[in-house]
């Protein structure tokens, strides 16, 4: 099963596209941006676990890769 949130590989400019299923949530430049997008999408603070592979798939590098 694919996680509902995907953080795509870094772009040449350093941002990472964040999607929920097929909906684009925004371009993140740091982990806090991903958290903010998820809050705006309706997740509670308790539900947001950036290291949960059942929630987020990090493509092209993990949470520490932004360039």
Characterization of this structure:
This protein is α+β, with helices and mostly antiparallel strands. The protein has one domain. 15% of the residues lie in helices and 30% in strands. The protein contains one helix and four strands. Strands 3-2-1-4 form a four-stranded mixed β-sheet, covered by helices on one side. β2 and β3 form a beta hairpin. It is globular. The model has no long low-confidence stretch (mean pLDDT 94).
Give the SSE map.
Blueprint: E1 5-10, E2 16-20, E3 23-28, H1 31-40, E4 56-58
Parallel strand pairs: 1-4
Antiparallel strand pairs: 1-2, 2-3
The largest β sheet comes out as: 4 strands, mixed
| Rg result | 11 Å
What string, H for helix and E for strand, traces the elements in order?
EEEHE
Query: What fraction of the residues are assigned to beta strands by DSSP?
Result: 25-35%
Calculate the mean pLDDT score and round it.
Answer: 94
* SS-based class: alpha+beta
Strand order of the largest sheet: 3-2-1-4
Poorly predicted residue ranges:
none
Instruction: Write down the domain tally.
Output: 1
Please give the oligomerization state of what you see.
single chain
Determine the number of helices (DSSP H or I, runs of at least 4 residues): 1
């Amino acid at each position: 099963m694919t996680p509902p949130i995907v953080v795509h590989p870094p772009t040449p400019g350093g941002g990472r596209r964040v999607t929920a299923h097929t909906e684009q949530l925004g371009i993140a430049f740091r982990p806090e941006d991903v958290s903010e997008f998820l809050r705006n999408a309706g997740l509670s603070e308790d539900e947001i676990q950036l290291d949960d592979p059942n929630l987020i798939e990090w493509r092209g590098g993990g949470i520490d890769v932004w360039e």
